[in-house]
Design goal:
About 40% of the residues lie in helices and about 20% in strands. The structure holds adenosine-5'-diphosphate (ADP) and magnesium ion.
Length: about 750
């Protein structure tokens, strides 16, 4: 057996199993070996049913049978009933209010049940409203060790792997067991240097592989996971820093900026920059003076004034001839993720640069504009239209010959068709939509490396930022402009809903607009999830949520959620207002059209999933309702709330939460206190774990790697070790194993 062998050449599998393996991303023997358990079931935590007595708080595992649902005779409450059997006995379980539970469970399947035992006159020993989880544990093996104790005995729990229809956790467990016994694993060379392993007390690769798949002690599983988390961060850092070094090897302009020029530009703004803004601008200007291109990320909440920073440093680039060059001026390209955002940036820039005479262009697929316009439109002594539409070809010519210094647009700005005379700075809004590789391509196309400034309002914890943006220096804006009105944030329980609607109607009547955000899962399901969530908290809570979302992905559509809610609001709540919807299944054009209509106030109420673009500025939309708020992370709620932060009117955020536990309410209350999104992201990480940040795998880091995000020391260590190596040996010539592993692991730069 070789690690590069296809799985099907080593294991007998049928077509359904093959499909399942593909869904799980497993092709080669190596993939299986690196397919780590999502968790371990600690068998010592289970009790035998025949040992239970009244009042015990317990977890049991067994087979479920006699599933029944009925309405209770007196109260008409729906209730479910079943029996759990293990090798030692039987116990009844009863639950109320959760009819869907019976649908979820199947006769004869293995379940893990946690709850309190009580003696019930009509049912005998009973667990009432317990937490029930389908258990993918291996019942046969479990019986071996749990009830006969004699066999292997000393294994810590059982690894539980993600399954897919056709492939069970048990199959994976046994397949990996077979691989682990093979020479190809025994002889596997360790790509991490021994000194790194010793320094951080990490196990060797072979040991870690054995321990992660079949730990004999809890500590073994933990230390093995730690090693793989470390190495994941380490490899990402290697790849990022390597890329950065390569970018820096190309020629870049060293720019000297006159303080006076900058101060003049800033002094024309009607406000004084915050300390955070000033500090960030100064850092960037210092970067410009260095011999290598800047690679910087600015993170700041929506409304913290990032566009002001972008404008000021753009001015600095244009205003100054590159040191040692005697030709014209440099150019700036500013990219936004959508046309709406690009257009907004263009409009802001035309205001900021009005007095300078500097030309600015907007390129989008629906048309191009040039500022300033020769044929200005005036009204009441005020110039109302300051730009002219322009033919794309003409504009491209002017960009190519350097006549237009600032070009704003979407992604397409760095396409082959747009050629710059001399690009000095690239600014990218909402960085995670653009690739690091694209940056390299851009540099190659331009023949040099432009300074690179990326900006994001996505609040993520520092550890995550250091990892996924490992190639960038970080500036954080943790201050909001003075005098900004705080969004009034209220947590609304179900019985206060009507009252909240009444308040909102007043705002609509005054001419304001409203966002209604629905969670991404269907309504019915949403309700049922809630039922179960009420009882669970912590990791099991998250698991229930994920189970549900996974199980029902196909039957639900977010389209239905938003359409149903929009219909309901039109019919029952806001009949006199125009309501429209937006969700992620809509085309980009359709989304932009809806956004434009909302911006033009053709729509009063926009019902949407959380897809509304970050940073879209609709000052008249001052109220946001977030349904199912308890299901969002704090940082995400904060970002959603950011949609109504731009206005001079007082704005409101209503968190409709079905939270029955104090814990949930307390968590949401953090939103009324926190100073900024980064604080909330850190709080998410500590309260609910990294899983929440990983949603949809959007960062391209595995769940295991995400565990490392709780550990800043580990992230910093992995980063420092990676930087040390790349600084010494950019191409990893003296580290052939590392170079090979990066290739094999096919480290996915999530941007692509
Ligand atoms: P961001 O891009 O970070 O979301 P913007 O740059 O769009 O934020 O700024 C939001 C609003 O705040 C704009 O209207 C801008 O003119 C204003 N603004 C920026 N900086 C300041 C400041 N220091 N004081 C007052 N207002 C500011
Ligand atoms: Mg912005």
């Amino acid at each position: 057996m070789y690690l590069n062998d296809n799985i099907e050449s080593q294991f007998r599998i049928d077509i359904n199993q093959k499909k399942a393996l593909i869904r799980l991303g497993l092709f080669k023997v190596r993939d299986l070996l690196y397919f780590f358990p999502t968790r371990y079931t600690d068998i010592s935590e289970f009790r035998h049913i025949n040992t239970l007595k009244d009042g015990d708080q317990t977890t049991i595992i067994g087979i479920i049978s006699n599933l029944k649902t009925k309405k209770s005779f007196k109260s008409k409450i729906s209730m479910g009933q079943a029996t759990i059997t293990d090798l030692t006995g039987k116990i009844n379980i009863i639950w109320f209010h959760q009819p869907y539970l019976a649908k979820m469970l199947r006769e004869g399947s293995t379940v893990r049940v946690t709850g309190k035992v009580s003696e019930n006159s009509s049912y005998g020993l009973t667990l009432t409203n317990p937490e029930i989880n389908k258990e993918d544990i291996l019942p046969i093996d479990l019986h071996d060790s749990l009830f006969q104790k004699t066999t292997t005995g000393d294994q810590y729990g059982y690894p539980v792997y993600s399954e897919s229809k056709g492939i069970t956790s048990k199959w994976i467990y046994h397949a990996i067991g077979k691989i682990l016994k093979n020479d190809c694993v025994k002889e596997i060379p360790d790509y991490l240097n021994k000194d790194i392993l010793d320094k951080y007390k990490l196990p060797s690769l072979h040991t870690a592989l054995v321990w992660i798949h079949s730990p004999q002690k809890k500590e073994h599983a933990e230390i093995a996971r730690k090693r793989f988390a470390f190495e994941e961060v380490f490899f990402i850092q290697l790849a990022r820093w390597q890329e950065r070094k390569k970018y820096e090897e190309l020629f870049s302009y060293k720019l000297l900026i006159k303080d006076k020029d900058i101060n003049d530009f800033i002094s024309r703004f009607p406000f004084k920059p915050t300390d955070s803004q000033t500090k960030t601008i100064n850092t960037i200007l210092e970067d410009f003076k260095k011999d290598k291109p800047m690679s910087r990320l600015v993170e700041g909440d929506v409304g913290s004034g990032k566009t002001f920073i972008a404008a000021t440093v753009s001015y600095a680039v244009i205003k100054n001839r590159p040191v040692g060059q005697n030709f014209g001026n440099l150019q700036v390209a500013y990219m936004a993720p959508t046309e709406v955002l690009a257009t907004q940036l263009f409009e802001n820039f035309t205001k900021y640069f009005k007095h300078t005479g500097i030309s600015i262009a907007l390129i989008t697929s629906s048309g191009c504009r040039k500022f300033p316009s020769k044929t200005a439109t005036w009204k009441d002594g005020e110039q109302i239209k300051t730009w002219t539409p322009i033919a794309r070809n003409q504009l491209l010519k002017w960009i190519k010959n350097g006549e237009i210094p600032i070009v704003i647009g979407t992604h397409s700005l760095i396409s082959k068709t747009v050629q710059f005379e001399d690009l000095g700075l690239v600014i990218i809004d909402e960085q995670h939509r653009f690739g690091t590789n694209q940056r390299m391509k851009l540099a190659k196309k331009e023949g040099h490396s432009p300074h690179y400034l990326s900006m994001t309002a996505t609040p993520i914890p520092r550890t995550l930022a250091l990892t996924i943006y490992g190639d960038l220096d970080l500036s954080i804006i943790d201050q909001m402009p003075l005098g900004r009105k705080k969004v009034i944030t209220e947590i609304i329980s179900e019985n206060k809903r009507e009252k909240a609607y009444e308040e909102i109607k007043k705002q609509l009547k005054d001419g304001r607009q409203l966002y209604v955000i629905c969670p991404k899962i269907g309504e019915e399901l949403g309700q049922s999830v809630l039922g179960r969530l009420v009882q669970a908290d912590g990791p099991s809570r998250e698991k229930i949520q994920q189970d549900f979302i996974r199980a029902d992905k196909n039957t639900l559509s977010e389209l239905r959620t938003v359409t149903d809610e929009a219909k309901r609001l039109k019919k029952d709540v806001f009949p006199n207002y125009n309501i429209d919807i937006m969700h992620s299944k809509m085309t980009k054009q359709k989304k932009e059209k809806v956004m434009q209509d909302f911006s033009d106030h053709k729509i009063d109420i926009l019902v949407s999933t959380s897809v509304i673009e970050v940073g879209v500025n609709i000052p008249n939309a001052t109220v946001i309702i977030i349904e199912g708020a308890e299901r969002f992370g704090l940082a995400q709620l904060h970002q959603l709330r950011g949609r109504v932060i731009r206005s001079t009117y007082q704005s409101y955020c209503y968190l409709f939460a079905n939270a029955k536990t104090d814990k949930t309410i307390d968590r949401l209350k953090a939103l009324t206190k926190a100073a900024n999104g980064f604080e909330l992201a850190e709080l998410d990480l500590s309260l609910r774990g990294a899983g929440l940040l990983g949603g949809d795998k959007q960062w391209g880091i595995t769940d295991l790697g995400m565990e490392a995000m709780k550990n800043i020391k580990m992230v910093e260590a992995a980063r420092n070790e990676a930087i040390n190596i790349i600084e010494k040996d950019t191409d990893l010539k003296t580290y052939p194993l590392l170079a090979e592993t990066i290739k094999n692991k096919n480290i996915k730069l999530h941007f692509e």
